[in-house]
TrEMBL record:
Source species: Caenorhabditis brenneri
Bias kind Acidic residues: ranges: 15-24
Coiled coil (residue ranges): 365-414
SMART domains from the UniProt entry: PX
Protein name: PX domain-containing protein
Domain PX as annotated: residue spans: 64-192
Disordered, as annotated region: 1-24
Keywords of this entry: Coiled coil, Cytoplasm, Golgi apparatus, Membrane, Phosphoprotein, Protein transport, Transport
Localization of this protein: Cytoplasm; Golgi apparatus; Membrane
Gene3D superfamilies reported for this sequence: Arfaptin homology (AH) domain/BAR domain, Phox-like domain
An annotated GO BP: early endosome to Golgi transport
Length: 446
């Protein structure tokens, strides 16, 4: 970590200590300390991943000429057939294929899954790291169908996640001009094969994963490229650290919500006590304390939202991106296995040709010679594809490293700043209550 980042980290830590982290025994303080420890591990791994200099323009940040926002949602249909649709507002600036500067389209969640399926089919074999959309949830779908609220909580959360997903897609230099993405952003309505996305795509992915496991057991790849071996190890380490951090962030948000309920219960109890207190000054102080705990409860609620939106969700996005990196690494292994199978086929047919010549079966030998020639061409093509895919994956990983370093720093700084503001707000509430507590007059008993 650089000296500037050390100074910034120390500054944030000092502000937290000055505000309200005096009680180090609280579960919340322990969670914050655990977060700092996890961040140190992640930062160390990130420095290792970004040790190599970028060798391609694709690894550098691109101008923000695309932006997708999702602010409006609607519930359409009634009963079991109801579903939510999301309004996409796209602003475009000098991107080929787009004739207007702004577009508005409505899409349901299954449309996003259909788009993701098309993108994966086209670009995963090319080694592109493809962002993941929000996971399909039966519970979320059921809540959307049964809820009568205009602003359903699950719909709002999913809209926010879909917005991040779409912006990651259009900011990728190899995806921004894709025709399917362009149609999705410019044409209103559903996309072809939408019905198949929820079931067949998942089943096919599961079958492919099963086949990959079998192939890995029967034909294990001996990695000859040190860069891929080292990067795979570092990616696995980063994945583990981020998953641990994500788990802690969820526990932290849950602890905040417990504080919300505890403050609400405390305020309710204090209000009853204030109503029965005979001392005027003490009753006034308890009433003021009731009001303070109510505001503290709202502040904890706001912080719980910050923990989820600005910390936990972005960390989960990166976990899914790392899953995409593993997908392209697995794609490289599959291509290598196909290349090896082609080589084995050539060797086998050459043996068959030699055997046919020994038996004076010239017609069969000539046929095998033609097949061998075709298989050799296919083997050479697979070898070229393997080398090209390896080079493309290197560029993609380097691009991910650069973006990861910048975005993670921005996420953490913004989250820490919001957390500091929350504690500062609570400190002001207690400072406002302090004079009232000091002015309590103890009345002597008769």
């Amino acid at each position: 970590m650089s000296s500037d980042e050390d100074v910034q980290s120390n500054s944030v830590t000092e502000q937290l200590e000055e505000i309200n982290l005096e009680n180090e025994d609280t579960s919340e303080a322990k969670l914050l300390v655990s977060n700092v420890s996890d961040l140190a591990v992640i930062d160390s791994i990130g420095n290792q991943l970004t040790s190599s200099d970028p060798k391609d323009n694709d690894s550098m940040p691109i101008p923000s000429d695309f932006k997708v926002t999702i602010r409006d949602t609607e519930k359409r249909g009634k009963g079991p057939s109801s579903y939510a649709v999301y309004k996409l507002q796209t602003k475009v600036n000098d991107v080929p294929g787009y004739t207007k500067k702004q577009y508005e389209t409505w899409h349901r969640f299954s449309d996003f899954l259909c788009l993701h399926k098309k993108i994966v089919e086209k670009y995963l074999p090319k080694g592109v790291i493809i962002p993941h959309p929000p996971e399909k949830s039966i519970i979320t779908a059921a809540l959307i169908k049964t809820s009568d609220e205009e602003e359903n909580r699950e719909v709002i959360d999913r809209a926010r996640q879909l917005e991040r997903y779409m912006n990651r897609l259009i900011q990728h230099p190899r995806l921004k001009n894709d025709c399917d993405i362009r149609d999705f952003l410019t044409i209103d309505g559903g996309l072809p094969e939408t019905v198949q996305t929820s079931t067949s795509f998942g089943v096919m992915k599961m079958l492919n994963n099963f086949q990959d496991v079998i192939k890995k057991m029967t034909m294990k790849m001996e990695e000859g490229d040190h860069w891929f071996e080292q990067t795979r190890y570092q990616i696995d380490e980063l994945d583990g650290a981020l998953r641990k951090l994500h788990k802690v962030s969820e526990s932290l948000a849950a602890a905040r919500w417990k504080m919300v309920h505890a403050e609400e219960e405390l305020g309710f109890t204090l209000s009853k006590l204030a109503a029965t207190e005979e001392s005027t000054s003490l009753s006034r102080a308890i009433s003021a304390l009731t009001d303070t705990t109510g505001k503290i409860s709202l502040t904890w609620m706001k912080q719980a939202e910050i923990d989820a939106v600005k910390f936990s969700e972005p960390i989960h996005d990166y976990i899914m991106l790392i899953s995409s990196i593993k997908d392209v690494f697995d794609q490289r292994v599959r291509l290598w296995q196909e290349w090896q199978c082609a080589q084995e086929a050539v060797v086998k047919k050459r043996e068959q040709k030699s055997d046919a010549l020994r038996r004076m079966r010239t017609e069969r030998a000539d046929q095998l010679a033609m097949e061998i020639e075709e298989d050799v061409r296919r083997t050479d093509e697979l070898e070229r594809n393997f080398k090209n895919l390896s080079a493309d994956i290197r560029k993609e990983v380097e691009r991910f490293h650069d973006e990861y370093e910048n975005e993670l720093k921005q996420i953490l700084v913004e989250y820490m700043e919001c957390t500091v503001d929350t504690y500062a707000e609570m400190l002001q509430l207690w400072e406002k209550f302090q004079p009232i507590a000091e002015n309590i007059q103890v009345e002597s008993l008769p």
